[in-house]
Specification:
By secondary structure, this protein is α+β, with helices and mostly antiparallel strands. It has one domain: FomD-like (FomD barrel-like fold). The protein is built from three helices and eleven strands; from the N terminus they run βββββββββββααα. Strands 1-2-3-6-7-8-10 form a seven-stranded mixed beta barrel. Strand 9 and strand 10 form a beta hairpin. The protein starts with 10 loop residues before the first strand and ends in a 7-residue tail after the last helix. Keywords: Hydrolase. It comes from Streptomyces bauhiniae. This is DUF402 domain-containing protein. One of its GO terms (molecular function) is hydrolase activity.
Length: 165
């Protein structure tokens, strides 16, 4: 589904599903939908501050999020309230599904963080992914998830993620 000019100011609700349950849902402004990639912008939707040690997500942060219908990841550019680039948080997901005003994305536990200067590229939550049991239940999906993480890491280390989004 691609968006026409009347849809561009539309609000979407992003629904993040994990292990078959809705983890979080939040409103976002639709920036673009070309039929393959859906881009939205939303403020930090979490409660309060979340400090990962390598980055803090906090009220005032703005996320420009890119989801693909044909890729197993989402890339989220994270900026502080003053516009300073914090970096990119990448979720390994099943391909996104947009239905009307809902964008549903299934999180597969693996993540990648790339700092704003591109110097730090961190693979995250590989232990959670292993514990999820996806490899035993759906080996092809698990392989696609690992491949997506490898692809994003290679892109981040070679040329950064700016060209991807």
């Amino acid at each position: 589904m691609s968006a026409n000019s009347a849809d561009m100011a539309a609000e979407l609700e992003v629904v993040l599903v994990k292990a078959g349950r809705t983890k979080i849902r939040y409103p976002a402004t639709l920036l673009a939908d070309d039929g393959t990639r859906v881009s939205v912008r939303a403020p930090w939707a979490g409660e309060g501050v979340r400090d990962f040690g390598f980055v803090r997500f906090e009220p005032g942060d703005v996320f420009t999020e890119h989801y693909w219908r044909d890729r197993w990841y989402a890339v989220k550019e994270v900026r502080a309230g003053d516009g300073t680039l914090k970096g990119w948080y990448c979720d390994i997901t099943r391909p996104a599904v947009r239905s009307g005003a809902e964008l549903v994305v299934e999180d597969l536990d693996l993540d990648l963080w790339v700092s704003g200067d591109g110097k730090d590229v961190l693979r995250l939550d590989e232990d959670e992914f292993a514990a999820s049991g996806l490899a035993g239940r759906e080996p092809e999906a698990a392989a696609a998830a690992r491949s997506a993480l490898d692809e994003l890491e290679a892109l981040a280390r070679a040329e950064g993620l700016t060209g991807l989004v």
